[in-house]
Amino acid sequence: MADTLKDLEGAQQDTRVPLGEILAAVRFNGDGLIPAIAQQHDSGEVLMMAWMNREALEETLTTGRVCYWSRSRGKLWRKGESSGQQQHLRTASLDCDGDTLLLQVEQTGPACHTGRRSCFYIALEGNAARIVSEPLIDPDILYHRPSGGA
Q1: Is 7 annotated among the ligand-binding residues?
Q2: How many Å is the Cα radius of gyration of the chain?
Q3: Rounded distance, CA 97 to CA 27, Å?
Q4: Is 14 within any annotated ligand binding site?
Q5: What is the pLDDT of residue 141?
Q6: Which UniProt keywords apply (predicted)?
């Protein structure tokens, strides 16, 4: 498996390898998951990090709609299925070690369950943390919950 990635270290630009061979080389962790970083394709803004199993990765590559593995729910999670805030895949890249994905996406509305554009809204500065963005949509409205609901 790892030989495929090792062989690619010296590969020339535009070298092509069958997708099945690359998927077989992906280094999923002990739970069968790989971290996937979602980045807005045109601005470069990092939106979120979530997990994918092989099924979620294959579905994403096949359909173009980003699908993750929800560890809390124990099932596939198609981004936006409850909020309507979908991610559409533009490009997917595997890192050199085969253990992290970078997804260039077109994000519809907020990516974060807090209603913010990005999940990375807590800046760690010196001896304090600072909130750096406001929600675009109230999470209760986003998820059709009664006000103040969980």
Answers
A1: no
A2: 17
A3: 8
A4: no
A5: 82
A6: Amino-acid biosynthesis, Cytoplasm, Histidine biosynthesis, Hydrolase, Magnesium, Metal-binding, Zinc
